[in-house]
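TL;DR need structure tokens for one chain.
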Amino acid sequence: QVQLVESGGGLVQPGGSLRLSCVASGRLVGTINMGWYRQAPGKQRELVATIHTVGTTNYADSVKGRFTISREYGKNTVHLQMNRLQPEDTAIYYCNADAVPTGAVKIQNYWGQGTQVTVSS
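>> reply
TL;DR here they are.
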């Protein structure tokens, strides 16, 4: 069983910063792509940022220059540093990972339960 556990959400004023973290744990060989998605009320879930095991990153246009994704490779951990937050960044942020469970022959995709980020004065 592989689990993704997020932390770091909360309430912040516009212009502030938050750092989200996600740890993949359980019986797994390793992770490949890890990333963050978000879903605002009444909207579809959308990509925020991803990072491949080789370090390649991908960002949504709306967060480029403000958010930075990074990984701790030996710990199956991904972080999202969010700066200059705006009210439109308010959403539930979900961690996502492509991982190889122990004993499996195929890559599986996993989601965390989500962490709330609220940007408001």
